[in-house]
Amino acid sequence: MAFPQPKPQPPQLPQHLLKTIDCQQGAVRAVRFNVDGNYLLSCGSDKSLKLWSVGRGTLLKTYSGHGYEVLDADGSYDNSQLCSCSSDKTVILWDVATGQVTRKLRGHAGKVNCVQFNEEGSVILSGSIDGTVRCWDTRSRRNEPIQVLDEARDSISSLKVAQHELLTGSVDGRVRRYDLRMGQLHVDFISSPITCVCFSQDGQCTLSSSLDSTVRLLDKSTGEMLGE
Fold this sequence. Notes:
Blueprint: E1 28-33, E2 39-44, E3 48-53, E4 59-64, E5 70-75, E6 81-86, E7 90-95, E8 101-106, E9 112-117, E10 123-128, E11 133-137, E12 147-149, E13 156-162, E14 165-170, E15 174-179, E16 184-189, E17 194-199, E18 205-210, E19 214-219, E20 225-227
Antiparallel strand pairs: 1-2, 2-3, 3-4, 5-6, 6-7, 7-8, 9-10, 10-11, 11-12, 13-14, 14-15, 15-16, 17-18, 18-19, 19-20
């Protein structure tokens, strides 16, 4: 006699609190894992960026150099560099080990909301309240961006890079997907200002949240709404 198979359990959201870290940075504007999840970056309204050990919950280093609150940060794939952005309109490239500013990138006309390395760590992409995404070459000494994407009609609130694609969300209510290899732009109109965007794990869908309290899952190639 065969016993019935146990019913597969639906995936559970994490609900068990592992650790609470008192960052002592005023308001914490963003928290980001590094590439392997062993370290955390916290962005504070006290103008500082802090690096934490996830396992021990201990502070490893504090990075100071911004003139106003730090709004976002990202770590490179090899953990050797950090980038951060701030209300002071700048993007800073940091050396992780020394804590020194490698480069301070200026060009945005307003506060910079979001920042991310590409997968090789050779380009930093930054999105700003000025409606532009700027691409900075981390290995060049030039202070100008290598490309400026200015299609948005309002502030860029979120951006994500995956391989040759860039996904941006804007307060103008549009999710834009740039195929950097083909030089193409795909736009999905969502009636409400976008607060956050990301790709699905398999890269086939995009997920966006907006100010109408809704999260939307869209098919990347067709723009069809798969769930909300």
